[in-house]
TrEMBL record:
This is Isoquinoline 1-oxidoreductase beta subunit. It comes from Rhizobium esperanzae. GO terms for molecular function: isoquinoline 1-oxidoreductase activity. InterPro entries: Ald_Oxase/Xan_DH_a/b, AldOxase/xan_DH_MoCoBD1, AldOxase/xan_DH_MoCoBD2, AldOxase/xan_DH_Mopterin-bd_sf, N-heterocyclic_Hydroxylase, OxRdtase_Mopterin-bd_su_IorB, TAT_signal. The lineage of its organism: Bacteria, Pseudomonadati, Pseudomonadota, Alphaproteobacteria, Hyphomicrobiales. It comes from the Bacteria. Keywords: Oxidoreductase, Signal.
Length: 740
């Protein structure tokens, strides 16, 4: 049996049992829980006898309540993760109710994040898949054991149907609710291994097309509660004027005009800004607008100019004398192999800052009462939110309660906790009354944690036949990891796997070297959807096309050649080429292909584009995608997630750009931070090609990395080899490439 590190639940009673999974333990409880039937998309724990430090609770009326440990931000985990338990415990899905987990990493942390309670990196399903299926399997075995005792029958003669233990020869049966009402634990708890899990072809729910997401109905009818929807008795509202340049603080504050605004309760000086508390959001917002603040002038970020720096980063990448930290080294010495090559292809790929622009701007609500704190937040990291709230409020984590609401988009931005910290700080100033802090869209755009500015220098050595003999990939960027965890960054020897994610590809090359050259210019950078894969696959897939062109071979055939030992990769590439009719001529259009192995998903995409040479505008007409997700837990949701990621990927490749001049962000709202419009949407065609013998891949981000390079490669085929090497492909950049 594969050992799985799953957090241990505590507080066992006579009516609960300990599920042992790979040497660790999880609590499952019996209780009267009809009050949990609050509707599928509830984000609040139930009242009554429910104890939220358990995974499963079975009520006497047959309702099965299952904890959802991850944050629901539109990716469907509030359905897919509880579904895993329901599948192997053979619960009737119509009788299942979902309860959002409290903030408690010890109990509900993700094994793939070292037990941290974090929803990010397309790692939720990958982390919880095996542990929670085993929880379901052992729950079923214990129900069988209890029923065997009740019916006075050998347990081997019993089986289960949805939420019922059945003795087929006699027709006798017990519902799970009946077992819960009077159940006694068996003296010896049955153990489980992966052999006890249902084969995928026998699953009732996994892989089914008709299992709908439980959060969608409330989002359609408007009853879904996001963080921004939180309403509490006696609630106040907060707004924060933040320093225009990161690292600065208020030097002097003239708040006379702000205090004169009707409804203003309090003005709170903060380390990096000034908070306003009002009886309404409008009062707080208007008061913020009339604050007169003089800021310090000492931050190093005041020298930050993104246009200048990306060029400087490119020069660093080209300068091989500037050593980088080795992130990956495979095979022979890449530098020697390239030095002895018959031909060397060298290329630089640049990517600008991009912002998350989630549909729901940042917000959080906090209530501080003496040494206890309660937080309502759309956060990707409730455990971290709890710990930081405790630190800010001067109390201990056990006295902090975090309610994770639905998230109106995350993409990595809500893994940060700055919006939670602000809410706790303002609530601390008016103890006893909850304060909801809402960021305006301008606040959100100008004070984010942007994807790093990055330059990539690639050198690929070819022999006389055009075969790759060496591959050297240098990434130049600021570090995400050094900011969020200096200790981890130091323990990693200066490597940043977040920034370099995706640079290790599975193409067959005899010598492969990846280096990270860190820059430190003071600007906070963070994870953005697909993290490093969003730009590393851009560079890799464009260079693969360039090598294919140099060799005079078809780019699809060339990829298949380099992936001769990767059958899953070959399968999706062959499938997407067939979907797009790769060899068919296009009038005024061209096709480009790209492949990604990000998040353990095999994903190939073809983009069909046209180009207005006079304006430099690219139009994407179609994107075809073939994806192998391993086990396809929810096929319809996989299709939706991939389609959404394709849109996001095309948007950031064509339009999205955040400029910083002298430390100040120049964009402010969606009129200046350009995203793809509805009228610019391509037709999207997705084919899911599951391989049930493999565990599920990460899906929420997997469709994004190949889009940009597929577009760039299509432009190259359309123009006879013009290469686009700078995200985004702005019209002026396209025209410059055409004229170079």
């Amino acid at each position: 049996m594969t050992k799985t590190s799953l957090p241990q639940a505590v507080a066992l009673s006579r009516r609960s049992f300990l599920v042992t999974v790979g040497g660790t333990a999880v609590t499952v409880a019996f209780a009267s829980l009809s009050s949990v039937a609050l509707g599928a998309a509830t984000a609040q724990a139930a009242t009554g006898d429910f104890t939220p430090n358990v995974w499963v609770t079975i009520a006497s009326d047959g309702i099965v309540s299952i904890i959802s440990p991850a944050s629901e931000m539109g990716q469907g985990v509030m359905t897919s993760i509880p579904l895993l338990i329901a599948e192997d415990m053979d619960a009737d899905w119509d009788m299942v109710r979902i309860v959002q987990a409290p903030a408690d990493a010890e109990k509900y942390g993700n094994p793939n994040f070292g037990g941290a309670q974090l929803t990010a990196g397309s790692d939720t399903t990958r982390g919880y898949y095996l542990p929670l299926r085993l929880v379901g399997a052992q729950t079923r075995k214990i129900l069988l054991a209890i029923a065997a005792d009740r019916l006075n029958l050998p347990v081997g003669e019993l089986t289960t149907e949805p939420s019922r233990v059945v003795h087929l020869p006699s027709g006798r049966s017990l519902g799970y609710g009946e077992i819960a009402a009077t159940g006694e634990l068996p003296d010896v708890l049955p153990q489980v291994s992966e052999a006890d899990l249902k084969p995928i072809d026998q699953c009732r729910y996994i892989g089914r097309m008709d299992v709908n997401r439980i959060d969608v109905p409330s989002k359609v009818n408007g009853t879904a509660k996001f963080g921004i929807d939180v309403e509490l008795p006696d609630m106040l509202y907060g707004a924060v004027l933040r320093s225009p340049v990161p690292g600065e603080a208020p030097e002097s504050i003239d708040d006379a005009a702000a205090r004169a605004v009707k409804g203003v309760i309090h003005v709170v000086p903060l380390r990096n800004g000034v908070g306003i508390i009002g009886e309404s959001y409008d009062a707080a917002r208007r008061a913020k607008e009339v604050l007169n603040v003089t800021w310090t002038n000492s931050s190093s970020v005041r020298r930050y100019n993104s246009t200048r720096l990306v060029e400087a980063y490119r020069d660093v990448g080209r300068d091989l004398a500037q050593a980088g930290v080795i992130s990956h080294e495979l095979g022979a010495d890449a530098a020697d192999a390239i030095a002895g090559a018959a031909r060397v292809i060298a290329a630089d790929y640049l990517s600008d800052h991009v912002h998350h622009v989630t549909m729901e701007p940042m917000n959080a609500t906090a209530l501080v009462s003496n040494d206890s704190i309660e937080v309502w937040a759309p956060t990707q990291g409730p455990g971290t939110a709890r710990d930081l709230a405790a630190r800010i409020g001067g109390t201990t984590p056990d006295k902090v309660k975090v309610h994770t609401t639905l998230l109106g988009g995350g993409f990595g931005r809500r893994a940060e906790q700055d919006f939670v910290i602000e809410a706790v700080m303002l609530a601390n100033a008016v103890q006893g009354r909850p304060v909801k802090v809402i960021w305006s869209r301008e606040d959100d755009v100008r004070h984010g944690k942007y994807r790093p500015l990055a330059a990539q220098h690639l050198q690929v050595g070819l022999d006389a036949s055009g075969n790759i003999v060496g591959w050297h990939h240098r990434l130049v960027a600021d570090s995400i990891l050094a900011r969020i965890s200096k200790d981890r960054f130091q323990r990693a020897g200066g490597q940043d796997s977040l920034v370099t994610d995706g640079a290790i590809h599975n193409y067959s090359v005899p010598a492969h070297l990846v280096q990270f050259v860190r820059q430190d210019n003071g600007q906070d950078v963070g994870s953005w959807r697909a993290v490093g894969n969003g730009y590393t696959k851009f560079a890799i897939e464009c260079v693969i096309d360039e090598v294919a062109a140099a060799k005079g071979v078809d780019p699809v055939a060339f990829r298949l050649e380099l992936l001769s030992e990767q059958p899953r990769a070959r399968k999706v590439i062959e499938a997407v080429a067939a979907m797009a009719e790769w060899d068919s001529p296009r009038d005024g259009r061209a096709l480009g292909i790209a492949y990604s192995d990000a998040f353990e998903a095999h994903c190939a995409e073809v983009a069909e584009v046209s180009l207005d040479r006079e304006s430099g505008e690219i139009r994407v007409h179609n994107v075809w995608c073939a994806i192998d997700p391993g086990v396809a837990i929810q096929p319809l949701n996989i299709e939706a997630q991939v389609a959404g990621a394709i849109v996001h990927g095309a948007s950031h490749a064509l339009y999205e750009q955040l400029n910083i001049v002298d430390g100040e962000v120049q964009e402010s709202n969606l009129d200046t931070y350009r995203v793809m419009r509805m009228s610019e949407m391509p037709q999207i065609h997705v084919r899911i090609m599951p391989t049930p013998e493999n565990r599920p891949a990460g899906i929420g981000e997997a469709g994004l990395p190949p889009v940009g390079p597929a577009i760039a490669n299509a432009v190259a085929r359309l123009t006879g080899g013009v290469r686009l090497r700078h995200y985004p492909f702005l019209p002026e950049r396209v025209k410059a490439a055409l004229s170079s």
